[in-house]
Amino acid sequence: NNLSHKKIMSTLVANLxxxxxxxxxxxxxxxxxxxxxxxxxxxxxxxxxxTKNDSTTLVIVDPNQGIKELQQDISSxxxxxxxxxxxxxxxxxxxxxxHMALISSLLKLGLGINLTALTKDGIEDI
Length: 126
What we know:
Elements: E1 11-16, H1 22-32, E2 37-42, H2 44-49, E3 56-60, H3 67-78, E4 86-90, H4 96-108, E5 112-119, E6 122-125
Parallel strand pairs: 1-2, 1-4, 2-3, 4-5
Antiparallel strand pairs: 5-6
């Protein structure tokens, strides 16, 4: 019986920021995946320029603030958006500072993290 492997909800949390070609990666991850909930952590530029679908929530942050402030900002905005105990995380886009703040936020919220990416074979856990 495969019920233990069945996910009740699948939430994708992805950073959407700098990095040549990374917006295309995130877009394909969204389009090709079967996500119940999609949360993109981005900046004002992402808010204005990324075309999101109906199941996508944008969390807008200022990546220029200090890393601790960025982490606290992300945590305060994510805490009411994620109801399940674990998320699928993609950090192909953005800077190391943004990634550290996002990962720290998810861990401090007590969430399990499955790293996921688009590969030549499709969407895979890494």
